[in-house]
Amino acid sequence: MIRILFSLASYLAGAVPFGMIIARKVADMDITQRGSGNIGATNVARELGLKWGLLTLLLDLLKGFIPVSLFAVFSPNQDLGLAVIGLSALLGHQFSVFKKFRGGKGVATALGVYLALAPLSTLVAVVVFVLTVAVSKFVSLSSLLSACIMPVLFVFTGRGWVLITASILMAGLICLKHRENIQRLIRGEERKWGKKVANQEPPATDQIRRQNRNE
Questions:
Q1: Structural domain boundaries of the chain?
Q2: DSSP labels for 41-58?
Q3: Which of 142, 163, 182, 196 is in Cβ range 3.0-4.6 Å of 132 for a Cys bridge?
């Protein structure tokens, strides 16, 4: 029963679209109609500014970290329960009941899940992410590599087959949500971090600055 309740709560927590809420509150803007249309931290940072992107990242991360951490307190050493709770949070973010079962790509929420399950392995994945962004400037490629390296790290660190299987499923879900990015990467059309798109409306952060000057 506790596993079922935690799974439901984890899904609902994951389903809260923080990026959309922040964009609406800060700039009265529908983030799904700007930039990439994604509700995640990268698009929020591009359209609203870095601090709002970081806030979105933190909140999306906590959607995965808190449920898994709490379940670990009540039911330690239950890999199946931890796997189900973690997957529920990710599915909530990617297929939100509050957004007609649409959602973000789930990288930050998965990061929160992994921080609760295996902080050292997660640190390695974060290093891979940072180095890949530094070299390639592609956030999507960095996210994909980081997600796909987690099952490998779980194997090498001797985690049980349940958590290894869950990490493979999580990597698969993240890759599925990045399928358009993968196609653009193959075609050489993927947008690099920091690169402005021609003939596009200016980021909302410019509007915010103008409003602040007028107040």
A1: 2-194
A2: HHHHHHHH-HHHHHHHHH
A3: 142
User: pLDDT of 58-67, one tens digit each?
Assistant: 999 999 999 9
Task: Write down the pTM of the prediction.
Answer: 0.87
Residue 160 DSSP one-character state = -
pLDDT at 199 over 80: no
Q: Which value, to the nearest 10 degrees, does the dihedral of the CA atoms of residues 161, 75, 7, 163 take?
A: -10
13 residue type, one letter: A
Instruction: Give the separation between CA 47 and CA 202, rounded to whole angstroms.
Output: 8
Residue 205 above 70 pLDDT? no
Place of tokens 């609760």: 116
Looking at residue 141, its amino acid is: L
Distance CA(108)–CA(96), nearest Å, equals 15
CA–CA separation, 6 and 50 (whole Å): 32
Where do the H-state alpha helices sit in the chain? 2-15, 18-27, 41-48, 50-74, 79-94, 107-117, 119-136, 139-156, 161-177, 179-187, 204-214
